[in-house]
TrEMBL record:
Keywords: DNA-binding, Transcription, Transcription regulation. It comes from Christiangramia salexigens. InterPro entries: Sig_transdc_resp-reg_C-effctor, Tscrpt_reg_LuxR_C, WH-like_DNA-bd_sf. This is HTH luxR-type domain-containing protein. The keyword Plastid does not apply. Residues 185-250 form the HTH luxR-type domain. PANTHER family: DNA-BINDING TRANSCRIPTIONAL ACTIVATOR DEVR_DOSR (PTHR44688). One of its GO terms (biological process) is regulation of DNA-templated transcription. SUPFAM superfamilies: C-terminal effector domain of the bipartite response regulators. The keyword NAD does not apply. GO terms for molecular function: DNA binding. It holds the Pfam family GerE.
Length: 252
C-alpha cells in the first residue's frame, strides 16, 4: 500500500510483512530536501510502526557528511527504533562511492541501527523475512577487466555470490582510499633511500631501535638519524603513519 509519494521519494507499507519500503524515485540534490523527505518517512513510520525497513537506494546520489548523519540518527533512526524497528536492509545504489558515505556512518559510529547491504531487492527481502542465518559468507569474489569505454575509462566489474555485500563494498572503499593515499604521497615516498625503507619495514613489524640496529648491523644512533630523516621526508609524526605507508606501498 502506497502511503507517500513526492517528486523524490515513494514510501509503501506492506502490512503482511510488517515492512516499510522507501524508494528514491529521484535523488535529492541538497540536505534541505533530504531532511524534508526523511521527516515524512519518520512521521509515517511512527504511524504504522512496522518492525522492518527496506531502503532502496538505486537512484540516490547525494554524498552524506557527518552532520547529516547525526541529524538522521537523532530524527530518524532513534525514533524508529523506539517505535519497533528491528531490521533495516539497504539495496545498494548505482553510485557505490555515495553508498560508501552512507555505510561509513554505520560502520564507524555508534548507531542504534545496524543495517545490512544487498545487491538486489530480492536478497534484501529474503533477509528481512528470514533470519541472520540466511546470509551466506562471501566467497570467490572476482574482479574482471572488461575493456575501455569510448572516453578511455577502464571498465572493471566485481562478481560475487548473492548475499550481504557490506564487506565487498567496504573493501572497495578501502582500495580507493589507499589508491588516493598513494597518489597524494608518491612524491614524498620517492625521496626515501633504500636503507630508510628497510628501517620503516622493521619499525612497522614492531621492532625497537636497538632491534632494528642489530638486524641491519648498524648503530642505534644511525637508526635514530634514519628515523629523523623519514619523519622529515614523509612529514609524519608517529609509527601509525609508518604502518600506513608500509601497507599502502606494499613494502616488504
Amino acid at each position: 500500500m502506497k502511503i507517500y509519494e513526492s517528486e523524490f521519494l515513494q514510501i509503501q507499507f506492506e502490512r503482511e510483512n510488517q515492512c516499510v519500503v522507501q524508494f528514491w524515485k529521484k535523488s535529492p540534490e541538497d540536505y534541505s530536501t533530504l531532511k524534508k523527505e526523511f521527516e515524512a518517512y519518520t512521521r509515517l513510520y511512527l504511524k504504522h510502526k512496522p518492525s522492518n525497513a527496506l531502503w532502496i537506494q538505486k537512484n540516490f546520489q547525494l554524498p552524506m557528511d557527518h552532520e547529516i548523519h547525526q541529524w538522521i540518527e537523532k530524527n530518524v533512526n532513534i525514533p524508529c527504533v523506539e517505535n519497533g524497528n528491528k531490521k533495516v536492509a539497504f539495496v545498494v545504489g548505482m553510485d557505490v562511492l555515495v553508498h560508501l558515505s552512507v555505510m561509513s556512518y554505520f560502520e564507524e559510529a555508534n548507531s542504534v541501527i545496524h543495517p545490512l547491504h544487498f545487491a538486489t531487492e530480492t536478497e534484501a527481502r529474503q533477509w528481512l523475512n528470514g533470519s541472520e542465518n540466511d546470509i551466506k559468507a562471501e566467497t570467490d569474489i572476482k574482479i574482471l577487466f572488461e575493456g575501455v569505454d569510448q572516453e578511455g575509462n577502464s571498465i572493471i566489474k566485481i562478481k560475487r555470490p548473492a548475499g550481504d555485500i557490506t564487506n565487498t563494498i567496504l573493501s572497495f572503499g578501502n582500495l580507493i582510499e589507499e589508491n588516493n593515499f598513494i597518489k597524494a604521497n608518491i612524491s614524498k615516498f620517492s625521496k626515501l633511500t633504500m636503507r630508510e625503507k628497510e628501517v620503516m619495514i622493521l619499525f612497522a613489524k614492531g621492532l625497537r631501535h636497538q632491534e632494528v640496529a642489530d638486524k641491519l648491523f648498524i648503530s642505534v644512533q644511525t637508526i635514530k638519524t634514519h628515523w629523523k630523516n623519514i619523519k622529515t621526508k614523509l612529514e609524519i609524526k608517529s609509527l601509525v603513519d609508518v604502518i600506513k605507508y608500509v601497507s599502502a606501498f606494499e613494502m616488504k
